[in-house]
Amino acid sequence: MNSMNECASNADSVAACAKTAVQDYPLTSLLVVFGVGMAVGLVLVETLGDSVEKAFERELSTPEKLGRRISDLLKSNLPESVMRQFVA
After folding, report:
1. Model pTM score
2. What angle do CA 59, 61, 67 make, to 5 degrees?
């Protein structure tokens, strides 16, 4: 802790202070850097996640679109008892 106080009171460069801190507290330094990296990663995923997902999303082919429309029509128009026959 004494070296950190000396670093703050002297006019040392930021790199020298960081090097001293890492040498004195290696595990704490590692955990802080890991936490900062995780936080930055989460912010980037939240910010860019939707745009990246949309960029790689493929469009449905015509048979797939037609199959979904038919399925939706059947689900909305057939009685539930008949639908259970198809699902089971």
Report:
1. 0.46
2. 115
